[in-house]
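Q: Give me a backbone?
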Amino acid sequence: MNGTAWFEDEAFWTAYAPLMFDAAAWEEVPGAIDGIEALLSLKPPAKVLDLCCGVGRHSLEFARRGYAVTGIDITSAYLAAARESAEAAELSIEFLREDARRFARGGYFDLCVNLFTSFGYFSTKEEDLELLARCARNLALGGTMVLETLGREIAIRDFVSREEFERAGWHVVTEYQIKGNWDAEINRWILDNGRERIDRSFELRLYSGCEMKEALENAGFGAVSLYGGLDGRKYDEKALTLVAVARK
């Protein structure tokens, strides 16, 4: 791909969009924002940065509630869909095509969210830290980052090597392998709808709760709290996901 990172491949994201953003994914959004508001005692018109916003699911919900929202993503097709949805809903949202590691608006936002396991796909841990540090700099004093990803503890607990299912008109086979000492999970997704077959692989870097907390502290955040879901449950053996709340 001539040096282009896999996550910059528009064709990849366009093909996989129906699987990631199905009806169930949209239906869970209001509850997720309810959880964030409760965790942070957040109220409009706070300024929200939706990092790796995709097709704008969370951006749209924040805007409906009266927040001032900026959504950034690297995938043009997703941003076009997000803008179309915002226009249809008569919502004013700033959507920008930006690299999350580079986007700079120092001291501006009250909240930065990175949701739906959109963290951990860069080539190195240093790039992950660069993204977190950029978020810290973009937040106003007292601002907060909420990051949701797959914690290593959950990946170990729930690991399966293969799954097969039907979704959005595709027959889907997923295969998983572990890299190193649970350093990363290698995901292979094979899609077939009878007319087209797509076979792609990517890696998700795994962080334990302790490692995520340390990374956020090293990026310039102060108090960091961990939860097992956006509903504020404990990050323990029953956790649904790893949610880090980091305050500047």
